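Changelog-adjacent note: as of this version, every example in the card shows the full chain rather than a window. The one below runs 547 residues end to end.
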Amino acid sequence: MSARFLAPVIQDNPNGWGPCDIPEQFKDMPYQPFSKGDRLGKVSDWTGATYQDRRYAIKYQSTFGSMQQYAYYHEEDESTFQHVYKTNVPKPLYQRGRYMRNQRNLKNQRNQKGQQMQVLGKGNKRDFGFQNNKNWQKQQYQRNRWNRGGHPPIKNRDASVTVRPEWKVIEEMDFPRLSKLSLPNVEDPKDLYLCGSLEYYDKAFDRVTVKNEKKLARINRIFHKVTTTDDPVIRTLTKAEDSSNVYATDAILSTIMCCTRSSNSWDVVVQKIAGKLFFDKRDDSEFDLLTVSETSSEPPQEEGNSLNSPRNLSLEATFINHNFSQQVLRNDGNRYKFEHDNPFLDEDEEDEVAPVGYRYRKWCLGNDINLVARTEHDSVQAAPNNEIQFINIKALNEWDSKHSGGVDWRQKLDTQRGAVLANELKNNACKLAKWTVQAILAGSDQIKFGYVSRVNVRDSTKHMVLGTQQFRPMEFANQINLSMDNAWGILRCIIDICMKLPDGKYLIMKDPNKAMIRLYDIPDNTFESDEEDNEKQPDGEGWQHRA
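Full-length structure tokens:
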């Protein structure tokens, strides 16, 4: 019998290529899509519905659907399986991070064990236990850094003054409560005494840009930062103004009124003498130093003599502010003079003292509280209508853009000045608020900001002026969300608390690490020496309690 050859049926597809009909042997057979990169399930899984743990249920699940009828899974081939082509196949949940987490935990256990076992080999000076301990500490630091999103841990801030055991806490005022206080409709102040002289502002600095920068000059002039009870004018006003019962300076008032924005610790001495309150700063305090990046999410934390330690940055900012405020003045001998001379001026140092205009003003805060404060102007300028405008001049400084918000002034200042100012408002909210309050208290018409940057980020002695900007104080207060009603409310609240206390000496201090201020009752001789007591008793009328 001869062999027979059956010719296969060849389908003719006139409109293209490939079969145009399903072959007879494949009819009525379900189709499962398949490719080498797909994970397939088991041929049949009779226990699939009984899995309580989701990880095992998904393990035997096909890429193309849940528990499909004809899915299968080759467990033996899985270990040697290699993709023919690259594709991104999502891993099942039981493979995502579980292995890495177990390995990390195992590694931590080994490091901890190595920390406890310090082995010293003979003739070998290397301490293996110490080495493991260092490695473990480094890994802990990196792990904590990763958990915080890459930010270093914020160190505890130091208190501005050491609290002694004998000091008694009278009151604690937290910032959330203080921020809700309000004293609206404070009457306009009354000028009591005007003294000093002012130089005119050089408008050429309004045209300074990044491309036309100017070097910050060193100008050696004396700045008087006299506290309240050392001010001869205030001493005179205590006798002349019988109705006034609270005395302070604009720097002290602005610190109290903007306390809810502060992060660093500060302190103010309060003396109550014959029913009158005197707000003072300590003689040896750093009250007048400007803070840098105080309210930043990553405040400077370097220690010692580092260029960017908080104290060195404060000294640099104060140095810049003093020099800039004098460099922008026209030193041509033309001055605007008030009625009286500078009360802190010695005859032999007239040319060495920075020109300042002092305005002693009186506010009525209600409830028989009358406040007298010394306020300051830094300069004057002629308005377009030839009226005299009083100006406060301040300097913002850039120390390292990589550590202060990432906004490079030389790239952004000319084109995106709003972004630069917004970054400064975030990092120095308290300092800017205090400057604004001081300008409002003094009745200044304008507040001018200078943008001063280091020539080199590693050198804090050379700076360039990159630009200036001016605002009306009340408009700028609204822009930075500074409420004067709230500021007056905070001050009035603290005055009311102090007025209820007996005569004596007290201390207001911002807690270094908490959002609150505390009022302490301190002995009368605190912060004083016997020599000071003998020197500062002009008329024997209660001035023996000077801070």
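Structural remarks: Confidence is low (pLDDT under 50) at residues 66-77, 115-131, 530-547.
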